[in-house]
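Example record used in the benchmark description.
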Amino acid sequence: MPDNPLDCLVIGAGPAGLQLGYFLGRAGRSHLILEAGPAPGTFFRTFPRHRSLISINKKHTGWDDPELNLRMDWNSLLSDDPDLLFTRYSDRYFPAADDMVRYLADFAAACGLRIAYDTRAVRVARAPGGGPFEVTDQRGRTYRAERLVVATGLTLPNVPPIPGVETADLYGTAPTDPSVYTGQRVLVIGKGNSAFETADNLVETAAVIHVAGPNSLRMAWRTHYVGHLRAVNNSLLDTYQLKSQNALLDGHVRRIERRPGGSYLVTVSFIRADEVTKDIPYDRVIVCTGFRFDASLFAPECRPETAVQGRFPALTPAYESVNVPDLYFAGTLTQSRDFKRGTSGFIHGFRYGVRALHRILESRHHGVPWPARELPADPRALADAVLARVNRSSALWQQFGLLADVIVPGGDGVARYLEELPADLEGPPIGDGGHFAITLEYGPDHDKDDPFDVTVGRIRQSDAERAREGHYLHPVVRHHRPGAPPAVHHVTENLENEWTSPEVHAAPLQAFFSRQSARVRV
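Model output (structure tokens):
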């Protein structure tokens, strides 16, 4: 490698690494992507194990607007090429993982991305006091860069500390052929999509399937978090509730004992029965408890702190390590920013996080202003601009509550409108003189009520006075002023997500801008 360090080195050529490589290349920055595998998207060559994605691929939306269509396209990366949309690769609503592998390879080739394949990063070091990062690969070659972006995804199994767990199968290596489990009693540990994906695969062949875990089962249709259990994976619940031998065990797995002959005796303490403990025999045990971040390749002087029981790197609002300057993260590794409440674990979420990260890098290190447009700072113009954005934006829709548009009023009657900043980002490019932040959000306690219980009342969509009580996704505008709590305005929810009514949506928002502008003048 040249003596001069790269501007940016990216580790990982999965969707996030490719997305960042696209933006870096378009900006003309010196960079390189290191990929351990022989092609992009190594993760999707193995996962999900049963080869069907749970990221939706809705081709027929009735819209002609490509920005709106991205709301229903959870797999495409962002580019200026309409041929590089995942909807051209599959007609299935839940597409095959192999289609994703093919798509990512085509994206990398079509965009001419700078990728070093079969190049595994094995050590990341940095001189004391700062300076370029030095990344060593498996052949001993060293790559130097001013900034490092880790986009490897979660690469280690998140194995719970259960005595004897090492004798069980892991989600990533357990046989997927259902005939292997014919007539057997199977325990699946975990209550997420990988656990139920595994269990559903065995319904036709296994004699008994138990799915165990200490936490309450959370359904995506109730929480709005796409990582919670999805309907496409919940067939086992139907068999459980209809007394078809399978069961959900709400308790702690205390011990796994591998017995002579290969069977298991598993000790489970049941939460619903005041921790009553029972030993249960099984033929197979499969651990499906997710994945975690691998920090082992970092030297001590630049090892990032972690969050969420060590599963993710701890990040600032700029996607930067909280303790290692110039070390950034992209993709599923950014889930600590919205863990179990947002979309940063999926392409349709983190593609916008990557775009925000790139704009942060550009503004911090290259003096490139955050993209902005000017508009009159009068209430009508501000309200019109906000409603136009929330009616169309895919970024605010997908990264709800995490990304925000920002309006910065000026003293000359002109305001700057900036799109898609991390909602909690402070300082440049926002400044500290006060601003409006626009997000899409679900209402408070939106997951407390059963969304299909018709006895639970909902506000009328024409009732702007009660907009803050709405549970469904809706626009929220906050006025942030130095030394004062933010003033908040909710635009009432709408079944079709069309905030176009002059009386219900526009007029109350204009009144809010008028009140807040008057306070600024005072």
